[in-house]
Design brief:
mainly alpha, two-stranded antiparallel ribbon, 2 strands, 20% helix
Length: 103
């Protein structure tokens, strides 16, 4: 049994997957290498390979706008007075006791 001709033409246009080719095919993520691995398991960054982005100096007269508005006010945090913030174990236990009752 063979697939129909239109199906074969459509399969030719699809992107390759690792299951369709022999071993050694690695698709990757397109992120690129920023350095090299050492023989001891470390990683050495090659700063000639690191991407750098140049930001224009005066952004007030810049024609492109950011994805987030510049006029947005910062939100107030829920854990504003707590020095440990949301990672406070006491706050977690108090909430657990409130919602589940005392054991």
């Amino acid at each position: 049994m063979q697939p129909t001709a239109p199906l074969l033409r459509r399969l030719g246009r699809l992107a390759l997957t690792t299951k369709q080719v022999n071993g050694g095919y690695y698709k990757g993520t397109g992120s690129g290498s920023m350095g090299r691995h050492t023989k001891h398991g470390g990683y050495i960054i090659d700063y000639k390979k690191v991407r750098t982005y140049v930001v224009p100096k005066d952004l007030k007269d810049f024609k492109l706008t950011p994805f987030v508005t510049k006029t947005m006010e910062p939100l107030k945090g829920f854990f504003e007075g707590d020095p440990k913030g949301g990672l406070s174990g006491e706050r977690y236990l108090d909430r657990w006791k409130r919602e589940n009752g005392m054991d």
